[in-house]
Amino acid sequence: MGSNSHLQTLSNPTTLVIFGASGNLAQIKLFPALYELLAYGHLPERLSIVAIFRQSSAALDTVMSQVEVTMLRQHRECDPAILARLKSLIRPIIMDSTNQEDYYRLRDMLDGIDHEFSVAHQRIFYLAIPPSIFKPVIACLGAAELNKEYDGVARRIFIEKPFGSDLASARDLIDSIKTHFEEHQIYRIDHYLAKETVQNILTFRFQNPLIRSIWNRDGIDYIHIRALEKIDIEGRSDFYESLGALRDLLQSHLLQLMALIMMDAPTAMESHAIHEQKNALLGAIKLPTEPIDEFANRGQYQGYREEVNNPESQVETYAIVKLGVDLPEWHGVPVVLETGKALDHKDTSIEVVFRDRHNIDSGRNTLTIHVQPDEGIELQLTAKSPGFGYETRPVSMNFSYNTAFEGKNPEAYERVLFDAIAGDQTLFSTSAEVLACWEILEPIIQTWRNHNSIPESYTKGSEGPVGGIGIRKSVTT
Ligand code: BG6
């Protein structure tokens, strides 16, 4: 995690191989992130990018124009000279990623790059492709021996969530990847972990004695972690129909946030120690013993079925679950995880509500970590209103990234690619974490599947389904 190690390792000659180079993820996230890393001088001097396209090499021009459009739409500067430099690093190859023969051509190309520069490059295979072809692509890489590390020169594979769609399929995926790549070579991306505010959680918790002393069941009443989105599924029908809100976002991003918020202090701020503590916390998360309907709810926004062209769809676009942690320091502290699309506002945050042990009843103290938008930390306290009386009202103490720090925060995918090149696994999910997250939610997934439970309908632009609001309120009163 230390920045010095990054500075050393980023000098490593690197070939980044992007599968799915003309896909949505590559265009919207990966190439813009590479642009920024290049613009700020964060890429190694010897970097080649191999972009895999299914058809026509003209695809590269299309992708580059799309990158420019994306960046301008996001109000980011896009200097044509930097874009041209980025393009000059990219070598397109047309191949069918499920055809073994094509991998020998890919291997020749990668060997050619090593010869051209007279140095063996570490190779990073980034699978920006649908999860349904992870297994065949990984098997083809293995059969072409593109997984083999020689003389300490790394071979790494990067995959995007979802890692399976339930416990059994996640186990199967993990096992099949492990036949070709070892755990130190596998980087499972959870882009939430690469967000600046999320990286700050451990520092904030463990390097501030005041916070550390109240961060347990004696100090905290309940925790609410949410990723509420205003956007709907934005045309990603196939992707969303195969998953739904619980498996798309709650199973991965929100459980990871919960682990960071409640895990014990690691013995050191480095990958192994952090993963060890996260894993211990995830293993202790328990569902309440009540019937599932009382602590979990799901909803579907009106109009979703027409959008995905499936009048029978029972896929949820909203999910909420109340959990507990079976550890002495967290006993009796409920944690609510909530996510949904097409809601009335965007808010990804972690709200920690402190206990009122003396029952003063003058208002709660709440600490909110704003992940996005308006990244920062806010502490709500009670103050006396100015004047002759003694009325009180809640006031906020704020720390905002925009005003506290100068310069630009790297976007999550910039961090992901930076760490990919540096070989730092701290911000990636381990196989044990992925399995633990599926295990926690498996009873809910099975119940919703087996009982054909119908998600509660909610209006687009609302607070979500009534049942969900009820679960949220159950911890606040
Ligand atoms: C992705 C989900 O992992 O995260 C999307 O698949 C979701 O459904 C997205 O919209 C949210 O990411 P962010 O960074 O905008 O909060």
From TrEMBL:
Kindly give the SUPFAM superfamilies that the UniProt entry links to this protein.
Glyceraldehyde-3-phosphate dehydrogenase-like, C-terminal domain (SSF55347), NAD(P)-binding Rossmann-fold domains (SSF51735)
List, for all copies, the residue spans of the domain called Glucose-6-phosphate dehydrogenase NAD-binding: 17-200
Q: Which UniProt keywords apply?
A: Carbohydrate metabolism, Glucose metabolism, NADP, Oxidoreductase
Positions binding substrate in this chain are 191, 195, 229, 248, 341, 346
Q: Which pathway does this chain act in? A: Carbohydrate degradation; pentose phosphate pathway; D-ribulose 5-phosphate from D-glucose 6-phosphate (oxidative stage): step 1/3
Q: Which InterPro entries match?
A: G6P_DH, G6P_DH_C, G6P_DH_NAD-bd, NAD(P)-bd_dom_sf
Name the chemical reaction catalysed here. D-glucose 6-phosphate + NADP(+) = 6-phospho-D-glucono-1,5-lactone + NADPH + H(+)
| Catalytic residues (positions) | 253 (proton acceptor)
Which protein is depicted?
Glucose-6-phosphate 1-dehydrogenase
Write down the species.
Candidatus Saccharimonas aalborgensis
